[in-house]
Amino acid sequence: MPIVSTVFVLASASPARRAVLRAAGVEPRIVVSHVDEDAVVAGLANPDHDEVVVTLAAAKAADVAARVAGTLGDAVVVGCDSMLLVGGELAGKPGTAQAARDRWLRMAGGTGELLTGHAVVRLSGGAPAATAEGVCSTTIRFGRPDPAELEAYLGTGEPLSVAGGFTIDGRGGWFVDGVDGDPSSVVGISLPLTRRLLAEVGVSVVSMWCATTADSPV
């Protein structure tokens, strides 16, 4: 049976993920994870691409679930991690303008596969009760920004701190020709996949449509 009073905890500071959830009728409680992502990936032995993003998402969800357990009754903690697969290599956030520039010069006019790992931890009575994990893959068809457009885009700072060095819900959307798959996943959280994972742990997403919670200072 659905849990009517379930709190949706998003283990991410991403304003884009929060906006997707809000537009879909869910007001998440934000608790940012303290996971060392590089250390998590370093601990994996010959992982495939899906394993990397799912493991990172699971680590974030588990970290936040451990910190809020006992403070919430019925809740779900959702963690996500996105990376762009281009030329057989996974790319996260560029971090610098030069890295973002180099990435755009390689992927302009081509395609990439945006992988977003998702992990859900259900808390019942304040304790972990069930988990579910999955990954969503979406193909991105990139346009060809001219040199002036690319430099202007880099100058905004937007591509430096987002997976793959682009967005579809910001200035980067001008330079994406198309998306084959789930667009919400490209923004950072797949609504269809999240709904399925919530169902796996016994929670109906519609039971949270009217729930409103404040941000957590944790």
Rounded average pLDDT: 90
Give the amount of beta strand, in percent. Answer: 25-35%
Overall helicity: 25-40%
- The gross shape turns out to be globular
What is the CATH architecture descriptor?
Answer: Alpha-Beta Complex
Number of strands: 7
| H/I helix tally | 7
User: Under CATH, the topology is which?
Assistant: Maf protein
* Low-confidence region ranges: none
Radius of gyration: 18 Å
- CATH C-level: Alpha Beta
N-to-C series of helices and strands: EHEHHEEHEEHEHH
Tell me the count of domains.
Answer: 1
How many strands, what sense, and barrel or not for the largest sheet?
A: 7 strands, mixed
Which structural class do you get from the secondary structure elements? alpha/beta
End-to-end separation in angstroms reads 30 Å
How are the SSEs ordered, and which strands pair?
Elements: E1 7-10, H1 15-23, E2 29-30, H2 37-42, H3 49-68, E3 75-86, E4 89-91, H4 97-107, E5 111-124, E6 127-142, H5 147-156, E7 176-180, H6 183-187, H7 191-200
Parallel strand pairs: 1-2, 1-3
Antiparallel strand pairs: 3-4, 3-5, 5-6, 6-7
